[in-house]
UniProtKB/TrEMBL annotation:
This is Cytochrome P450. InterPro entries: Cyt_P450, Cyt_P450_B, Cyt_P450_CS, Cyt_P450_sf. Keywords: Heme, Iron, Metal-binding, Monooxygenase, Oxidoreductase. The keyword Iron applies. It comes from Nocardiopsis tropica.
Amino acid sequence: MTTPSTALREPRALGPDTDPELHHAFTSLEFASAVDPYPLFHRLRRDYPVAELFGGVSVARYDDVQAVLRHPHVSTDDRTSALHHSLKEQNRLSAPYLSQLDQQSFLHRDPPEHTRLRKLVVQGFTPRRVEALRPFIQREVDAVLDAAAPQGRLEVIADLAYPLPIAVICELLGIPAEDRDYVASWPRTQLCCTFETGSRNAAATLQSASDDHPRQAEADRVQQQLTEYFADLIEHRRRAPGDDLVSALIAAEENGGRLSAEEINATLRLLFVAGYENAVNLIGHGVLALLRHPDQWAALRQDPSLAGKAVDEVLRYDPPFQFTGRIALEDLDIGGYRIARGQHMTLWLAAANRDPEHFTDPDRFDLHRGGGRHLAFGSGIHACLGGPLARMEAEVAFSTLARRLGEPRLETDPPRYRTDVFRSLDELPITAHIATSA
């Protein structure tokens, strides 16, 4: 670890005076719904590799992003940030917000607590349990295409990319069939945008909003629904264990320790929300990239075994989540810049994954790309636990679509993106000759 010194540079401010266009693009979240945000990421990586932004520090180069992800003195617990401490001392944080922070999963916990919790969760979320879902995923994908075949039209997001991960996570968790329509009714935007909100974004909103602010009230309502539903499911599985992840988490034990009901509940909320949103975006971004590059679609259609490489290239080229966050637990040296203790850092995974220092011709979509390791699922102790499941869902989807779709065409290009903080397709209608599964 490099010891910070007075020779370190201070991060340059990316503000309305230094670069109005780039500042507006990021502070207005324009990048999230842009047809092509990658020129913005290129400029950010080139001109502001480590910069002041959002009241924190923005990090855009591959080496720097990876260094932060693997650094032993960074945190994912929002309660360690200087902003959180300041607002809490001023009594400017709402009770629901503070309660949500206290109930967060191991994703937002640091060692040794994170280590203990993740070890226990891994006992239930095994590669064998994930791989056992492959036949179920294949049946679900085939059923979607069978239903779409007569019309020769598929709305990739609404028909496949969104319902497939919901069905898979329900199967994994052992959610009863009679509850699945209810679970699928939870609003996607509220789930992905209010789940385990971090102090850098949420606190800035909540400090000026009352507890009954409409957006916060809706967020609290959805989180309460999730918590109450999984509390009931945990109790049911205690009485009647099954061959599902909830039962496995209840049974998990490490050195005499077990997960509490609250810890299991937080883990289930994490797996449910993060698990499906990763897969939704991975499948949607992947189909879009493949159809925009007919030569790559043809290669996959000729050799469906390339589906695994297609998943990796999509993860690099247009990752499901374009950024993640960390907090400095002490003064850090990141790429020659001083990051102050308590500072929030936004790590731009999308910018890092197209860094020309690590990827040759990084703006080219190429299933045969070799070398380089994308950071789409993070790195270090907080690498995405559900990554292998999202990968398998996308792999089955891509290989099946390549096998069964003839002459697929995008109905609209560019497609429409959602208007929230995550870069996520709102819809992706395509036409094709869809072969039957028989």
